[in-house]
Write a structure and sequence with these properties.
- Helices cover 79% and strands 1% of the residues.
- It is mostly helical.
- A two-stranded parallel ribbon has the order 1-2.
- The radius of gyration is 22 Å and the shape is globular.
């Protein structure tokens, strides 16, 4: 049977199960051009929408925490950092089970469920902030629920990785991730959450949660109507166990702490950092720009990695991140908000590029040494790569908890965030060394493969 006949049948006949596609060969040029590309783009678009909402809900507390005391609460700076850190802790923990949900329930089906779950943290936030007498423990519990939005990333990336051919994964995954990451910028933008909670007289923080309810419902309905499940998208327990045994899975997880963990951690803490270091500066006018820069640069990091190799781009990103942090230290000593802000933009840019390049390295690592003419070996490698994405994204996201908590520790122990910044510089130096040892050094097996 020719590829053209298969494509014609795929278009003309309904799938055996409603919402499921049982034949999917994106590596076949004819299949891709006649059928696959359009289907993949449609699923990518809707995946971006739902992941965007997931990130938006995940980091809601980053902008709400800045306004809590103005609304009648009396939390310490350390407590506020806890409120922006704990959603990242929960989100990171949920990423692994979210990854398994895709092969278990189907990409479309799980996208709908994960979208509807966002109604829980949005409603909990609206309830918690409505009463200034709400205890810190209760507030922390409601903030933890926002972690449901953080799990979306792993399932979304795992799902989309199956739709695209290897040669386009870097760009597709970069776009998918950027669409989600930019949700952080949207939440912190002055014309979105800040505008809604300040509309009319007084401060109405409950609206920060309720405003997402209709959007979530619309996104879930659209995903149910227009997304697809792929029968080939499987990441069974055996594949996950095999991925967990690969040393490179854990090496990449460490590197992802430095790239994505830095991005989400800095983005969550940035509003509080600006307010704490430069009280006279309007937080909403600047805070969102960091997440925006980091989000938009991510797909370009993936595309650059497609061309010159992910390890090279990742290494350069760690160098830029270290220099950016040192610039922030100098800016704080000089008391210059302009320099502080500019250095943080460099930092966010580097995290975004590094996010794209590290994610592009994952399928390349699992493809190394696999005979492209062996369909079974290729499928096994793809399944292990999909499983590894869940592990790596989960471990990496813990950086989003560590970054704001390190700020909180530094501020409480030393009355300054500078010690925390020096810790970050040391971490980036170690990660640069790890990248070189495993992927760039001439004698490293993966260096010859151009990972």
């Amino acid at each position: 049977m020719s590829t053209a006949v298969v494509d014609e049948r795929l278009v003309a006949q309904p799938p055996a199960r409603k919402g499921w596609i049982d034949h999917w060969e994106p590596e076949d040029e004819t299949f891709w051009e006649t059928t696959g590309k359009a289907v993949a783009r449609r699923n990518l678009l809707l995946s971006i929408v739902v992941e965007h909402l997931g990130f938006s809900v995940w980091v809601l507390w980053s902008i709400v925490a800045v306004n809590l005391n103005a609304a009648g609460f009396a939390f310490t700076e350390s407590q506020l950092f806890w409120l922006v850190a704990v959603p990242n802790l929960v989100g990171a923990t949920l990423r692994l089970p979210y990854t398994f949900a895709v092969p278990r329930f189907g990409g479309r089906n799980w996208t709908v469920v994960s979208a509807l779950l966002l109604l829980v943290p949005a409603s909990a936030l609206a309830w918690a902030v409505s009463n200034p007498g709400t205890s810190f423990g209760t507030m922390l519990g409601c903030a933890a629920l926002a972690g449901l939005g953080g799990g979306n990333f792993a399932s979304s990336m795992t799902n989309i990785s199956w739709f695209y051919p290897e040669r386009q994964k870097g760009w597709a995954l970069g776009l998918n991730a950027a669409g989600g990451n930019i949700g952080v910028a949207v939440v912190q933008a002055p014309f979105v959450v800040a505008a809604v909670v300040t509309a009319g007289a007084g401060l109405h923080l409950g609206r920060a949660g309720l405003m997402w309810v209709p959007l979530v419902l619309l996104a879930a309905a659209a995903a149910w109507r227009w997304m697809d499940n792929l029968s080939v998208a499987t990441a069974d327990v055996a594949s996950s166990a095999a991925a967990a045994k690969r040393p490179h899975t854990w090496v990449m997880a460490v590197l992802y702490i430095g790239t994505f963990g830095s991005f989400i951690g800095y983005a969550a803490a940035f509003p509080l950092l600006i307010k704490g270091q430069f009280p006279d500066v309007d937080v909403t006018a600047y805070a969102f720009l960091g997440a925006l820069v980091g989000s938009l640069s991510r797909p370009f990091g993936g595309r650059l990695a497609d061309r010159v190799g992910g390890a090279r781009v990742t290494a350069i990103s760690f160098v830029a991140m270290g220099l950016g942090v040192l610039g922030v230290v100098a800016a704080l000593h000089a008391g210059s908000f302009g320099a502080f802000f500019a250095c943080f933009m460099v930092l966010f840019l580097a995290t975004g590029v590094g996010n794209g390049s590290t994610y592009r390295m994952i399928p390349a690592l699992f493809r190394h040494g696999v005979d492209p003419g062996d369909p079974e070996a290729v499928t096994t490698a793809k399944r292990e790569a999909a499983a590894a994405i869940g592990i790596i994204s989960a471990v990496g996201a813990y950086g989003g908890f560590l970054v704001p908590r390190t700020y909180g520790w530094s501020s409480a122990a030393y009355g300054s965030i500078v010690p925390a910044l020096y810790v970050y510089v040391g971490v980036y130096a170690v990660m640069l060394a790890v990248t070189w040892v495993f992927y760039l050094r001439r004698s490293a097996p993966m260096a010859a493969a151009g990972v």
